[in-house]
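I hope you will forgive my troubling you with a question about protein structure. The matter concerns a single protein, recorded as an amino acid sequence and a row of backbone structure tokens. Please examine both parts with care and let me know of anything in them that strikes you as inconsistent. Thank you for your consideration; the sequence and its tokens are set out here:
***
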Amino acid sequence: MFDVIIAGCGPTGAVLAAELRLHDVRVLVLEKETEPASFVRIVGLHIRSIELMAMRGLLERILERGRRRPAAGFFAAIDKPAPEGLDSAHAYLLGIPQPVIVHLLEEHAIALGARVRRGCAVAGLEQDDEGVTVELADGKRLRSRYLVGCDGGRSTVRKLLGVGFPGEPSRTETLMGEMAVGVPPEEIAARVAAIREPRQPFWIRPAGAGAYSVVVPAAGVSDRTEPPTIEDFQQQLRTIAGTDFGVHSPRWLSRFGDATRLAERYRVGRVLLAGDAAHIHPPAGGQGLNLGVQDAFNLGWKLAAQIRGWAPDALLDTYQAERRPVAEDVLDNTRAQVELSSTEPGARAVRRLLTKLMDFDEVNRYLIEKITAIGIRYDFGDGPDLLGRRLRDIDVKQGRLYDLLHRGRGLLLDRTERLTVGGWSDRVDYVADPTAGLDVPAVLLRPDGHVAWIGDDQQDLDDHLCRWFGAGG
């Protein structure tokens, strides 16, 4: 009997397993693939995901395997510099091979005590008032108190639940990959600059370590059911640019569509959905992996609270209430970015206009904060603008704020030195620091780093501790 079974050991499933283990929840992760993916696709961690890694003490080992890049050029690949003074100590993009980040996150979960079984595909499920019975493809049956589907856009768990997945199917498909080139960089830059009206989507730009990132339309090449080949890229490059730039030795090649879908519900009884199982969208802006990881950080402590027996009424329901609107927003901004990649005259006119508007700091900042998820504000009711937002990694007398969040607990940061967490000390840490870099008397942080309360009144604080962390001991 497990507390939670997680279907899927990608980034979302691995992070969720680790978050649950921080609270001593018995976790089993089922991964249908027998071996990790071998293709070396580079993915990007955006600012908010980097912050979350810092909160759990993972960032240093991830930085060792990644490459920092400017936090710019995300929205529809419009090349504008990042605005100055982004509200984060980690204002950069971290490029890292996908197999590496998946391995690091899985390794972290296992080190905390999660169990991972590969070659185990979910084939059926039944739930009752006490838990969920999971049937595997080989006929074995497992029992847990909760099941979470982190099993991708074609999620078996979602289908077994009968949860609708409305949205738009793919209209166009695109090839994306990283590969070596056979001509000098200046020749590539000159040729690309000479293409005044390229067939969109199209780009070829440096991706580090001598490789180039290449994006071309998929129309007219190979069978969509088959993986793309380097010859497909060569053909499309010749069509668009008049040369294939001598591309060779691909690191990875993929094909993606612009399908956009959102699960109607994130929870049915004791079964929940997270990551691509709950939402899919085009990769514009590089938000997919980040959205799933952030789902897991939001869900983990709430599901653990439910299992440990101290969750307030409806706490688990706030997972859908908070994360589904975020996914809706991501789907909308990727829809907009896809339209801005169209070759139609109207779309290209809008793109030219937006390119000029992004010269205004407010516009550029708004779009960067949206893509990187540092602009998210959950609705916690009336209060200062900081309420419901994540708190940046500020200086505190013990060092850095995020270093105090490694255990996945709540935190009261008190500049007044007069407050207390009282009977909640088994799940909320207390730090008195009159020198903390805040312009408010005290803040209560949830385990995901979002500000749940601001003030200096003990009774008001107790009410909010009860709201988020249940009855005090």
Q: What stands out?
A: The first helix runs from residue 11 to 21. The chain has a mean pLDDT of 94. The CA atoms of residues 288 and 437 lie 32 Å apart. The radius of gyration is 23 Å.
